[in-house]
Design a protein that fits this description.
alpha+beta; six-stranded antiparallel beta sheet; 28% strand
Length: 254
């Protein structure tokens, strides 16, 4: 599988709160491409902007989970991820003024015979089904919760960026929303896309779909165009786009 990524610092920001884990490499505020043969991890984290230390939180969590191996059960993986959350909370207590640092976490553990999805927050995973883009994850936000409970009027007037799930935040309760599940039992899709809200809050799914399925664009141009369009649409937030592309058997020849 070929993984192409771009993480870009938001306009007028000193640090980038978004980070990604590509295999065993943690990346922040950079563009690149790599090949991963069969097994590994691909994750994105978006440090919570309202809490000081968002960049530290995203980097801390990704460095911690880079050592997690797939276990016999998804429950064991969830337990290990929650231990990472506890470690983040403990670490944050040692950093004056950053005790409430927090981050979202969304990504995939790839093994030869299965894939495990982990999701906490409002970073997203999409897949291409046929020629259509489908959102796999559900945003853990107050806005989405109000929509799901049919409180549409309240949803329209709430803070749409307020999240209900995250790692850190000074307490373990925010990670209770962590979802860990096996996915793609019938085989890997041809393309998987991960984005942070700096992109998907301002670029609609139809436009994202048009870019990702455009065969006239190379992969680096696709992730670049997603971020450029987000900025054109007014995003001042950090932006992350990670595109995973498979050959027919899920592994490249390289």
């Amino acid at each position: 599988m070929i993984i192409t990524y771009k993480i870009q610092k938001g306009i007028n920001k000193d640090k980038c709160d978004d980070s990604a884990l590509i295999g065993s490499q943690v990346v922040n505020n950079e563009i690149g491409s790599t090949v991963m043969n069969g097994m590994g991890r691909v994750f994105i984290c978006d440090g919570v902007g309202g809490n000081a230390g968002g960049d530290e939180a995203s980097l801390f969590v990704l460095n911690q989970i880079s050592d997690i191996r797939l276990e016999d059960s998804k429950e064991a993986i969830r337990t290990k991820l929650l231990s990472v959350n506890d470690a983040l909370i403990s670490y944050a207590k040692t950093v004056k003024g950053h005790e409430s640092m927090a981050t979202t976490l969304t990504g995939l553990f790839f093994e030869e015979n299965r894939v495990i999805l982990a999701h906490c927050g409002n970073t997203r995973i999409y897949v291409i089904q046929g020629s259509f883009l489908k959102q796999m994850t559900s945003d853990q936000t107050t806005y989405q919760w109000l929509l799901d409970t049919n409180n549409h009027d309240a949803a329209e007037h709430c803070n749409k960026s307020e999240i209900r799930g995250a790692f850190g935040g000074g307490t373990s309760k925010f990670a209770n929303t962590l979802i860990v599940e096996e996915v793609f039992e019938r085989g890997l899709p041809g393309k998987i896309l991960m984005t942070s809200d700096g992109i998907h809050d301002v670029v609609d799914i139809d436009t994202i779909e048009d870019i990702v399925t455009n065969d006239n664009l190379v992969s680096k141009d696709k992730v670049q165009q997603l971020i450029s369009l987000a900025v054109e649409n007014g995003s001042t937030d950090d932006c992350s786009a990670v595109l995973i592309e498979m050959s027919e058997n899920g592994i490249t020849d390289e």
